[in-house]
Amino acid sequence: MPDPAPSDPWLEEQIARVLQGDREALAVVFEHYRDRLRRIVSFRLNPQVAGRVDVDDVLQEAYLAAEQRLRHVWREVSSGGLFVWLRLVVQQTLIDVHRRHLAAQSRDASRDRSIDQPSSAGSGSAASSMASWLLGHLTSPSQLAVRKELAQQLEQALQTLGDLDREILMLRHVEELTNVEAAAMLGLSEQGASARYVRALGRLQQILRRFPELSGRPPGP
Q: What is the pTM of this model?
């Protein structure tokens, strides 16, 4: 099936060829979506792993995984379209990369880490990534001086959002997925995803009102 987002006939043809198991078309479509996939990896890559792993290495591993699953693609592509399928492959690749490198790092640092030290995984990690994105426009030397303190306060505030609220906001704003794509990723109906997004955005805007430095972020629906 073609992607639900508007696309040109050339892209629709390439996607149709991928769904028939064409490896050359897969390479073309993957390259077409590379910038979007790169943005996802850059945002989702754990900071502890980012120093060891290059984003392009993750994308290369994801592409090889997509090649291996190509013969099943016609059964795995959902209503969200081929991009959602590729994103799922990238997501699984990131999970594998994190598992390998964080496990190795944990073994290396086990002597120096307190057993009570909090983990970077889970809701705190998602809130931290979201806070970093929201503060990304603060880049001047004077702004950087307050960014660290703001990041901690904002992360604590963002943890009051539900996991699904944070996720749909990140899908729509950071990864720039359409409502149809976000719905497919989250297993929601299009109407349900739209309603969830509007509610989550309202809750986020309430939080951001406590931070004048973030006026105007993120954009409205």
A: 0.79
